[in-house]
Structure formats: structure tokens, C-alpha cells
């Protein structure tokens, strides 16, 4: 069974940093492109970052470019999101999601984790 | 920037067919997919590459995409189908875009 389990969310003040992790199991992690997406309270879905299997290609949404960094450790079956210079508008549930497209760009998302809540507030 | 537009809410009676649309400029030239999100849960992929269903998704969910509109059709709607539905488009030159979501109410 495919499982994605996010962790690392919490409360942080504006300007602060957090590092999210996503532990993958039930599939060969190194063979899949991965993504981070988020959903602000009461709002819709927003894709924010993508990484290819070997980390050679990375994409970011304009809303997080220059502040967030995606990475992965295939030996540990883990995906990460380093979030710096956090803003109030970054408050959301953050999801990691598997991407079976193999297109070197984000395509679609066939498995999602349960999400981890990040709250940015003073 | 590219935008996808969904009707905010749709109501349907149990057993009837629900159609949820997603509009965008030349959307039919891209791949469309659909997600279901029940309250308090993570999104679930229902349809990908316009018409394909992942394993485990009931046959009552179907998709189409042509011109400027993608459509999710739910045949024989059940109470458990009450949820938010999001369309999403992608191609090699367009970043991932989501529609604003449609709340389906089964009444």
C-alpha cells in the first residue's frame, strides 16, 4: 500500500523557517517524481514545487520561488521542503504527492499524504 | 496567468447524474484531471489524462475534455459523493493549474 506521511508542520512567526518531511513507503520511491502542494484554510489547492527522480530538475511556483527549497533522499525514501522567510499567506496544510507522469514537469498526482499544517502568525 | 474556472456549487438528487465543468482557454489542448476531496480528507485522484480512471475508482466517474471545457460526470450519484471536486490541467509548457473547486451537494 502506497503511503506518504508528512511531518514538521507547526506554528512559526513571520520571517521564520520550517522544514517539512515526507516519508514514503509501499512503492519504489526513487522511480517517481514528487511534488509539494498546499491548501490554505477554506481555500483551493495550489501546487508549489516539483522534483525529478534524481533531483536534476526542480520547479517552483512563483509564490514560493527564492524562499522554499525542495529536496529528496532516495536512500531514505524521503522528500523535504525547506521553507524560509515565511509569510502569513503561507499558512496552509502542506501535502506531498506522488507524480506518475514521468514528464520532467509536474503532471498529476496519484497519491497524497494526509498533510501537515503550517501556521504563520505573530 | 492561465486560469481554470469551476462553478462553485452543484446540487444533485441521489441516483441522478451530476456534471461538473471546468473552463479554460484552449483547455482541450492540455491534459485535464479531477480530484475529489471529502471534508477533512486529502484529495483523491478520480480522472487523469482527460478520461482515464485510476484503479479503484468506480466506473460511475467519467471525464471528457474538448475545446475550452473539461467535464466530470458522476452517474448514479450517491450520498458518499458529496465532496469538493477540483479540476487540474497540465502540459509541458504550462505550469500546473487548479480550478477553484466545485462543492457537490447530494440532496
In brief, what are we looking at here?
Chain A is mostly beta strands and 122 residues long.
Please explain how this structure is put together:
The complex is a heterodimer of chains A (122) and B (107). Chain A has 122 residues and is mainly β. Chain A has strands at 3-7, 10-12, 18-25, 33-39, 45-51, 58-60, 68-73, 78-83, 92-99, 111-112, 116-120. In chain A, strands 2, 4, 5, 6, 9, 10 and 11 form a seven-stranded mixed sheet that branches. Chain A has a four-stranded antiparallel sheet with strand order 1-3-8-7, with no helix packed on it. In chain A, a hairpin with a 6-residue loop joins strand 5 and strand 6. Chain B starts with a strand and ends with a strand. Helices cover 0% and strands 50% of the residues of chain B. In chain B, 36% of the residues are buried. In chain B, a hairpin with a 6-residue loop joins strand 4 (31-37) and strand 5 (44-47). The chains are: A mainly beta (122), B mainly beta (107). At the A-B interface, strand 5 and strand 10 of A face strand 4, strand 8 and strand 9 of B.
What is the CA-atom radius of gyration of chain A, in angstroms?
Answer: 13 Å
Count the E strands of chain B: 10
**Element order, helices and strands of chain B?**
EEEEEEEEEE
What spatial form of chain A do the alpha-carbon principal axes imply? globular
* Beta strands of chain A, count: 11
* Low-confidence region ranges of chain B: none
Q: In one word, what is the shape of chain B? A: globular
Topology record:
The complex is a heterodimer of chains A (122) and B (107).
Chain A: E1 3-7, E2 10-12, E3 18-25, E4 33-39, E5 45-51, E6 58-60, E7 68-73, E8 78-83, E9 92-99, E10 111-112, E11 116-120
Chain B: E1 5-6, E2 9-12, E3 18-23, E4 31-37, E5 44-47, E6 61-66, E7 69-74, E8 83-91, E9 94-98, E10 102-106
Parallel strand pairs in B: 2-10
Antiparallel strand pairs in B: 1-3, 3-7, 4-5, 4-8, 6-7, 8-9, 8-10
Amino acid at each position: 500500500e502506497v503511503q506518504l506521511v508528512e511531518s514538521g508542520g507547526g506554528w512559526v512567526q513571520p520571517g521564520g523557517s520550517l522544514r517539512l518531511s515526507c516519508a514514503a513507503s509501499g512503492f519504489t520511491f526513487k522511480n517517481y517524481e514528487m511534488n509539494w502542494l498546499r491548501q490554505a484554510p477554506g481555500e483551493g489547492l495550489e501546487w508549489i514545487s516539483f522534483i525529478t527522480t534524481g533531483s536534476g530538475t526542480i520547479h517552483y511556483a512563483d509564490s514560493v520561488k527564492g524562499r522554499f527549497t525542495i529536496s529528496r533522499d532516495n536512500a531514505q525514501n524521503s522528500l523535504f521542503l525547506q521553507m524560509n522567510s515565511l509569510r502569513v499567506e503561507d499558512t496552509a496544510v502542506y501535502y506531498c504527492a506522488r507524480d506518475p507522469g514521468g514528464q520532467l514537469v509536474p503532471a498529476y498526482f496519484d497519491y497524497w499524504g494526509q498533510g501537515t499544517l503550517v501556521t504563520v502568525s505573530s | 496567468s492561465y486560469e481554470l474556472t469551476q462553478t462553485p456549487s452543484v446540487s444533485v438528487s441521489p441516483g441522478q447524474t451530476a456534471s461538473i465543468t471546468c473552463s479554460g482557454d484552449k483547455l482541450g489542448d492540455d491534459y485535464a484531471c479531477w480530484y475529489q476531496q471529502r471534508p477533512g480528507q486529502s484529495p483523491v485522484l478520480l480522472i487523469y489524462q482527460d478520461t482515464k480512471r485510476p484503479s479503484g475508482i468506480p466506473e460511475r466517474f467519467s471525464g471528457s475534455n474538448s475545446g475550452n471545457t473539461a467535464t466530470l460526470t458522476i452517474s448514479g450519484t450517491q450520498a458518499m459523493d458529496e465532496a469538493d471536486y477540483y479540476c487540474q490541467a497540465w502540459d509541458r509548457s504550462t505550469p500546473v493549474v487548479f480550478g477553484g473547486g466545485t462543492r457537490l451537494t447530494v440532496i
